């Protein structure tokens, strides 16, 4: 926002000269004759009523729309509190001006405002609130800015498919079997014996390997989606407006170019 209005600054955070937040903008006080804003009313967390701070030397930051004042927090906290009736009488204003003039400031000394103009906010390095003469309607300079975002879109699919393969499996199994062997024992007890043919038969045993198949679960396989961060570079051509002045003093034009730089 190149020239924010006073309405857009209502509720903005107020920072002291050390860059610390101390309150929020509640309202602005205007000069009865010129209509130029000269004081800002700040409301803090104490709720004791608004604290008035001079706008001379104050500035704003475009990135967060914050108001920066060149006074220390302690000096602002101890400033005289005026009754909140929507107006500042000349005597009270002189009292406030004398109080703030007695303290130290971060920038230029407080001076009188131009009685012929409305206040305009000019952005810059320190972005001071300045009071100028009749500026006329002026020209608004615009420029294109590359706005980058992301859209979620489908890039592919992933699926699980189960199929069957065959493989040979070999297992060694320990087994036993029986074997017959000849054993001779001498006979010490003499008994009658007969001579003739005779047979004796015994049964031999052996382990026989058997095999069968059974289906058992061995693991569970699933799909998990992970987000992986990466970077992509986007470039495009943007347009900017430039304003040239005619019939303006060269030194003033040079100062304005330096301000923009």
From TrEMBL:
Residues 232-261 are annotated as: Disordered. It comes from the Bacteria. Residues 8-56 form the PRC-barrel domain. Residues 237-261 have a biased composition (Basic and acidic residues). Residues 139-244 form the DUF2382 domain. SUPFAM superfamilies: PRC-barrel domain (SSF50346). PANTHER family: STRESS RESPONSE PROTEIN YSNF (PTHR38463:SF1). This is PRC and DUF2382 domain-containing protein. It comes from Nocardia acididurans.
């Amino acid at each position: 926002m190149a020239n924010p209005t006073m309405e857009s600054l209502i509720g903005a955070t107020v920072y002291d000269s050390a860059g610390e937040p101390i309150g929020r903008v509640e309202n602005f006080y205007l000069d009865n004759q010129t209509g130029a804003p000269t004081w800002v009313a700040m409301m803090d967390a104490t709720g004791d009523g608004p604290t008035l701070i001079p706008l001379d030397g104050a500035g704003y930051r475009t990135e967060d729309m914050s108001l920066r004042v060149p006074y220390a927090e302690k000096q602002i906290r101890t400033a005289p509190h005026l009754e909140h009736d929507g107006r500042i009488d000349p005597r009270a204003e002189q009292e406030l001006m004398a109080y703030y003039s007695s303290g130290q400031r971060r920038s230029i000394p407080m001076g009188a405002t131009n009685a012929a103009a409305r206040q305009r906010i000019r952005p810059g390095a320190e972005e001071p609130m300045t009071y100028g003469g009749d500026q006329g309607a002026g020209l608004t300079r615009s420029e294109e800015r590359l706005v980058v975002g992301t859209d979620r879109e489908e890039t592919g699919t992933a699926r699980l498919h189960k199929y069957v393969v065959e493989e040979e499996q070999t297992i060694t199994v320990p087994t036993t079997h029986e074997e017959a062997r000849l054993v001779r024992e001498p006979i010490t007890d003499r008994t009658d014996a007969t001579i003739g043919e005779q047979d004796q038969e015994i049964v031999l045993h052996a382990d026989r390997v058997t095999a069968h198949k059974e289906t058992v679960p061995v693991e569970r396989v699933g799909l998990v989606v992970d987000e992986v961060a990466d970077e992509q570079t986007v470039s495009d051509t943007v347009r900017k407006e430039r304003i040239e002045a005619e019939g303006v003093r060269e030194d003033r034009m040079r100062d304005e170019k330096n301000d923009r730089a």
